[in-house]
Amino acid sequence: MAELSDDELLLAELGVEVEVKKAGGRTAREERIIAGFEDILRFIEEHGRVPEHGDDWDIFERLYAVRLDRLREQADCRALLEPFDPEGLLGAPPAVDDSAIEELDDEDLLAELGIEAEPAAGDITQLRHVKPRSEIRAAEEVAERTPCPDFALFEPLFAAVKADMARGVRETRRFGTNAEINQGEFFIVGGQMAYVAVLGEEFVGEHGRKDNRLRVIYDNGTESDILRRSLQRALYKDEAGRRITNPDAGPLFGSEAAEDDLASGTIYVLRSKSDHPVIVERRQILHKIGVTGGEVTKRIAGAKDDPTFLFAAAEIIAEYKVHNINRMKLENVLHRVFATAQLDLEIPDRFGKPFRPREWFMVPLPVIDDVIGKIRDGSIINYVYEPSQAKLVAAEHN
Length: 398
Prior knowledge:
Residues 281-375 form the Bacteriophage T5 Orf172 DNA-binding domain. By secondary structure, this protein is of the alpha+beta class. The protein has helices at residues 6-14, 28-47, 59-73, 75-81, 99-102, 106-112, 133-143, 151-167, 228-237, 277-282, 296-299, 327-337, 365-377; strands spanning 146-147, 172-174, 186-189, 192-204, 210-218, 222-224, 242-244, 263-272, 286-292, 314-323, 347-348, 354-355, 360-362, 383-386, 391-394.
C-alpha cells in the first residue's frame, strides 16, 4: 500500500478536508464568502434595499436573503467581511426564521414558488407553468371583497378625505416595502381608496411572521377582511399604490428638522481620489451622488475595497440633510435627473468580473445644488439636465 501524505491521511482516514491558503492569504472558502457577500452588495446597489424573504420576490432575491441571514449568524463570516461592510449590514439580526422552508420537500418548495411540478421526462432544470404567488394571492384577495352592509357610516369619511386632498391638507405618498399599516389610515390600492376600519389582534402566521386580520372598507361600497401583510404586498406591488397622509404628517423634504420631525438621512456628494486615467481627467466634475441613513464618513470608510467607490478613497464634497422622505425614492429621482451624465466606465472587481458603477455622474457641483433646491420646492419636474450645456434646461412636456 502506497504511503499516504499528511493531507491525504486527514482526508481519507479522518474525513478532514485541508484548505490551502492562497497567495493572497485567504482560503478558497473565504474567497467564496467574500464573493457571495459582494453579490448581495451589488443587489443592494441596484435595488436600493436589502434582499428580502417572501413569496412575492424572485428566487434569486430570496437566496440572497437566506445567504445574508447565514452570514449574520456566523461570527467568523462577520469578522472576515467587516472590511467590506462599512454600513454594518451584517450587524442586523436575520430577517426571518426560514427553518420552515428547509423542511419542505422538492414538490412543496416548487409549490411555494408557484411552480407546477411535472414528471421527470424532461429536463428538471426547466421550470414550467410558472405562476407568481403574487398573482394567485391578488386573485384570492379580490375575490374576498363583499358588499359593505354599513357603507353609509363610512361614506362621509371618504368624502372628507377627498375634500382634504383637493385643498392640499392631505397628500399621497408612495408606499414603501414593509411600511406600517395602522387602524384609521387611508390608502389608494387598485385604483380605489381604502380605509382600515379595524386592525384585529396580532397573531403568528405563515413562517412564524406576525400578522393581523383587517377590516378594510373601499370607496366603491365593498369591504374585505384582508391580512395586513397581504395589503402591504398589494400596496407595494401596485405602481399607483399610495398612502394618504394625515393632515399633520409634516413636510416631505426639509433642510432643517422641525419639532417631532423624523430624520431620514443625508444626500452626499463625493469625489474620487482614484488614479485611474478616466477619473483623473474628469475629477473636478465627476461626483458620486447618493442617499444614506447613516453617517457619510462610515459609508465611505471601506471605499478603497469597494467597487462602487471605484476601489479608491473618496472625499466628501457636500452633504444635505433630509427629513420625512423615502430615501430610495429620493435617490432614484436624483439619479434619473442626471441619467444623461452617468459615467460610462467598466472596471474589474476584486475577482476580475466586470463591474459598471451606477452612482457616478459628470456634473458640476453648482448644478447638483440647484437640482436639490428644485427637488425641495417641487419644481424639478419642469427641468432636465443637458450635459452639453452643463446646466438644467426647461423640460418639454407633451
